[in-house]
Design brief:
Blueprint: H1 13-35, H2 42-53, E1 58-61, H3 68-78, E2 83-87, H4 94-98, E3 99-105, E4 111-117, E5 124-128, H5 135-147, E6 149-152, E7 155-158, E8 164-169, H6 182-185, E9 190-193, H7 199-208, H8 223-235, H9 240-252, H10 260-265, E10 266-268, H11 272-288, H12 296-301, H13 303-307, E11 312-313, H14 315-320, H15 324-336
Parallel strand pairs: 1-8, 1-9, 2-5, 5-8
Antiparallel strand pairs: 3-4, 6-7, 10-11
GO molecular function, one term: ATP binding
Organism: Pararhizobium mangrovi
Protein name: MoxR family ATPase
Length: about 350
């Protein structure tokens, strides 16, 4: 899933509250600054921030021209992260992402190899149109997203901390694309659907981005402060009721679990990593909204971005025109008791 591990230290309730209040102030400022650059995509901004606050990676899916690239650039600036960008193309090689060894020669004629780091050595990596590259190149990201290091010529090279990948994928123009394998999709904490803006937001885009000056993001926090907030999120308490809701939702999405809707329409469902993702994301969402503990509503609100890329529809569902959103909607409705 690509979640960075942090050491656990006991915190008193008073210390937890004080740390949470401080984090709330920083998160509010981050939201404000990103919102001054990205218009009308509140849900997308929220989920992208949640993915980073929870310590994971995000996959942004949407048609071209919806400011996905601009959003990632703004997040990198506002969060104080060293950013890198890779435009994925069919001829992109793994070494173009990870880096390569080159031979150096000193004044005495002595030769040695030196590792030249690729763009993956950034705290926030933008992987643009990730499904345009070959499976071999896509898999070059796999170890990095999960293990937070890459291996070149048998040598381990650790990535910066924090390290996050925000990848974009175009749902259209499927010719010349290579669908991401299930193992790589599962490394993304959330799939974030980027839709068209509302009328008022699009009007603001037209008036504010076509003049002589364009709003620019400014740093609000640092990468070190982000890591502190990520550690705080991992310490937030989760009640048994919320844990039970996560387990019930994830298990109901698996065929053979007793859910008739799932059995009819799903060929395979989410594994335990989906439950881990929900545990972290519900904590991050609670803090994002000013609460010290997640609720069942947080779990259900995050069902779509956490589950949709970890499930597959069967032939019968596709023949009936059933979408993954329809299936998850029914699971959420059942969890609510509707």
């Amino acid at each position: 899933m690509g979640i960075q591990q942090t050491s656990e230290h006991a915190m008193s309730e008073k210390e937890m509250v004080a740390a949470a209040e401080s984090a709330l102030e920083d998160i509010a400022r981050v939201r404000e600054h990103v919102g001054s650059v990205i218009f009308g995509q509140e849900a997308v901004v929220e989920r992208s921030l949640l993915a980073i606050l929870a310590g994971g990676h995000g996959l942004l899916v949407g048609v071209p021209g919806l400011a996905k690239t601009k959003l990632v650039a703004a997040l990198g600036t506002v969060l104080g992260l060293d950013s890198g960008r890779v435009q994925f193309t069919p001829d992109l090689m793994p070494s173009d992402i990870i880096g390569t060894e080159v031979m150096d020669q000193d004044a005495s004629g002595r030769r040695s190899f030196r590792f030249v780091r690729g763009p993956i050595f950034a705290q926030l990596l933008m992987a643009d149109e990730i499904n345009r590259a070959s499976p071999r190149t896509q898999s070059a990201l796999l170890q990095a997203m999960q293990e937070y290091h890459v291996t070149v010529a048998g040598e381990r090279n650790d990535l910066p901390k924090p390290f996050h990948v925000l990848a974009t994928q175009n749902p259209l123009e499927q010719e010349g694309t290579y669908p991401l394998p299930e193992a790589q999709l599962d490394r993304f904490l959330m799939q974030i659907d980027v839709t068209y803006p509302e009328l008022d937001a699009e009007r603001r885009i037209l008036t504010e981005t076509t003049g002589t000056e364009d709003a620019e993001a400014t740093p609000v926090i640092t990468g070190e402060r982000l890591r502190e907030i990520q550690m705080l999120i991992r310490r937030m308490p989760v009640t048994e009721k919320v844990v039970d809701a996560i387990l019930s939702l994830v298990r109901s999405a698996r065929p053979g679990s007793g859910n008739a809707e799932t059995d009819r329409h799903v060929s395979w469902g989410p594994g335990p990593r989906a439950g881990q993702a929900l545990m972290l994301c519900t904590r991050a969402r609670a803090l994002y909204e000013g609460r010290l503990a997640p609720s069942v509503d947080d779990v259900l609100a995050l069902a779509h971005p956490v589950l949709q890329h970890r499930m597959a529809l069967n032939f019968a569902a596709r023949a009936e025109g059933i979408s993954m959103h329809d299936v998850i909607d029914s699971l959420v409705a059942a969890a609510r008791g509707d």
